[in-house]
Design brief:
InterPro entries: PHI/rmpB, SIS_dom, SIS_dom_sf
Low-confidence stretches: 140-145
Enzyme class: isomerase
GO molecular function: 6-phospho-3-hexuloisomerase activity
Protein name: 6-phospho-3-hexuloisomerase
EC number: 5.3.1.27
Helix content: 40-55%
CATH superfamily: Glucose-6-phosphate isomerase like protein, domain 1
Strand content: 5-15%
């Protein structure tokens, strides 16, 4: 249920919540993710549902940076190997399909990086690096005051903001401007 007032005030409330959550995120996680991804031979990105859509946006930006990036499950995605990195976005940290991917990536010598709400999850235990976002859980009780948004929306929005922060850090490390990324932008549109 929306708070008393207009949709504009509801949006402002949720943007404020997203900003507060971003301020609570682990400050070193962005640096660490950026460094690991810059050292990786190739980067594979996965998530289920809307978290997967945020991952696709992240993979696109990595490609714009000149990183060999792939979305798991796409027809042109090659096999993962040693010295590659698998980036997973999972609010619960318990998604079975992602757990299977992480296990296989580890067996093949790739590193696993996770963004989640749950630091004590099966995926967190498998990951080489975990960034914890303090977003509302998907199963937050209606009216709990945690968020007015449905399901995992707050996590998914925070996930996109986190991924974009990693991209900005990678741009800084490579001394690259946003305009330089247009050289890799799609041109058959």
């Amino acid at each position: 249920m929306l708070p008393e007032g207009s949709y504009t005030s509801a949006i402002a409330l949720e943007l404020n919540r997203l900003m507060n959550d971003a301020a609570l995120a682990q400050p070193d996680a962005v640096d660490s993710f950026a460094d690991r991804l810059l050292r990786a031979n190739r980067v594979f990105v996965a998530g289920a549902g809307r978290s997967g859509l945020m991952g696709k946006a992240f993979a696109m930006r990595l490609m714009h940076l000149g990183i060999a990036a792939y979305v798991v499950g796409e027809t042109i995605t090659p096999g993962i190997a040693e010295s590659d990195a698998l980036v997973l976005g999972s609010g619960s940290g318990e998604t079975a399909s992602l757990t299977g991917m992480a296990q296989k990536a580890k067996r093949l010598g790739a590193s696993v990086l996770l963004v989640t709400v749950n630091p004590d999850s099966p995926l967190s235990r498998l990951a080489d690096e975990t960034a914890v976002l303090p977003a509302a859980a998907k199963d937050a009780a209606p009216g709990s005051g945690t968020t007015i948004q449905p399901m995992g929306s707050l996590f998914e929005q925070g996930l996109l903001v986190f991924y974009d922060a990693v991209v900005l850090k990678m741009m800084e490390r490579r001394q690259m401007s946003g305009s330089a990324m247009y050289g890799s932008h799609a041109n058959l549109e």
